[in-house]
Amino acid sequence: MRSMRMPHALPIAPPPASPGLLAPQHLLVVDDQRLDRAITAHAAGRMGFRVKSAGSIAEPRDLPDRGAVFDFVVLDLALGDEDGLEVLPLIAHRNPATVVVLASGFDGRILAASQRLAAGLGVRVAGVLRKPILPTALQRLIGQAPGILFPDDDAQLDIAPERIRQALAEGQIRPWFQPKTSLATGLIVGTEALARWTQPDGRAVPPALFVAVAERNGLISELTDVILDQALQACANWRVRRPDCWVAVNLSPLLLSDPGLTDRIEQRLQHHGVPPGALVLEITESNGIPDTTCAMRSLTRLRIRGVNLSIDDFGTGHSSMLSLIRMPFNEMKIDQAFVRESVTSRDSRKVVRASATLGRELGLKVVAEGVETETMAQLVEDAGCHVGQGFLYGRAVPAHVFEAELTETADQPGVVPAL
């Protein structure tokens, strides 16, 4: 059992309106049942959304692939002779930043499969609601979604590589930090650096968009260097008060084929005076880890030099087990989809428990991602996970905000070392 919860968790309430967000936001209801559609639309309208509705995927001219961009879509999976799954590719194509709420009465296996399908398309599903949808339920679910929304502007959706280069040069893209918390003590033990792009006018560009563009256009190395450099600088500052603090940085599998990767990372560690053990590199398994000699050499050299390696999104890729066995990982991150579903899905709970057991048997630290409630925290701790990450403990925040939180817990006992 957890002996204590983090005493001053970072804010998890829905972010307030600001010049960086567009208000009112746009929400689309897709439901073939007129009464249910009207109830949902009314609930969303009471929340301040600009609401449009459709009885089928072919009905309105303003579905995601026909001109309009929606911040949220409430989608019924059963649409008469059609099914709501056909809407997901349209959303992925038009605006991957759209957050989807599934409305359904189907059993847990179908809902879990639908959520995994959405995740595979790059569409975020906030969760599932039973019909009729009440305003309080919709507010609670949507309130958990990050406040990074995209404007109704086609030009904004087309992120040219030159815009990313300019943003990097001008310092518009910076790391924000989300706490990682010991499930045993409830105390912050580290953080993950997440790339955030805030434009000069205050609007935020969703990472799902610009990271993908960077990977496709050969900019992922430059983006990673910027985030890594600033994350290590921040970590060096924090370690003055919290010498056990560590930071995790995402590393695209595309970079593992770069023979100079290990030397560049080592040079940055030395430059900032951060020991290799205070850095965790999270390699996203769902994107596919290349099983090549060069990739193996890079990962092995990093581990030999003391850098920690984490297999991210474990269980969602095509080669989870092979990657875990062949590559020198010493941390496993259980994908947030399984963690979120564990509250309502017995199968997902079994996956979380089996993954945690496997990780412990292999001598890995096990991190549960997407922990949003106390119930989830208890489930993943009971399953054998060591560290939790998610909105329960705090959202990603700028470095100075995270430093303030870390300073408050600097003298708290029970903080565990990195790995």
Features:
disordered C terminus; single chain; 8-stranded mixed barrel; TIM Barrel; 419 residues
- Give the neighbour order of strands across the main sheet: 8-9-11-12-13-14-15-16
DSSP strand count: 16
Principal-axis shape equals globular
- Residues in β-strands, percent: 15-25%
CATH architecture of the largest domain: Alpha-Beta Barrel
Q: Give the N-terminus to C-terminus distance in angstroms.
A: 21 Å
CATH H-level superfamily of the largest domain: EAL domain
Keywords: Phosphoprotein
Domain Response regulatory: 26-146
GO molecular function, one term: cyclic-guanylate-specific phosphodiesterase activity
InterPro entries: CheY-like_superfamily (IPR011006), Cyclic-di-GMP_PDE-like (IPR050706), EAL_dom (IPR001633), EAL_sf (IPR035919), Sig_transdc_resp-reg_receiver (IPR001789)
Structure description:
The protein has 419 residues and is of the alpha/beta class. It folds into 2 domains: 26-142, Response regulator (Rossmann fold, 3-Layer(aba) Sandwich); 156-408, Alpha-Beta Barrel (TIM Barrel). Helices cover 38% and strands 20% of the residues. The strands form 3 sheets. The chain has an 8-stranded mixed barrel with strand order 8-9-11-12-13-14-15-16, surrounded by 8 helices. A 5-stranded parallel β-sheet has the order 2-1-3-6-7, with helices on both faces. Helix 14 (374-383) links the parallel strand 15 and strand 16. Helix 1 (34-46) crosses helix 4 (135-142) and helix 13 crosses helix 14 (374-383). It starts with 25 loop residues before the first strand and ends in an 11-residue tail after the last helix.
